[in-house]
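Quick log. Single chain, no ligands specified.
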Amino acid sequence: MSRTSTGLLVALLMIAIIVGVDVAFLRDKPWVRLATNIGIVAAFGIGYWLLLARN
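-> predicted structure:
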């Protein structure tokens, strides 16, 4: 799998998780929702950097 397709797959997975968590758990809590989304993006960014970007 090329680097571009891997990055695209990671981005699509991150978007799916964010939308799923927002709809399932955080619909009426905007500040908790924002903090959770920032945490998810940070976790994916760190994971991508540690596992994929260093290769």
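The chain has a mean pLDDT of 90.
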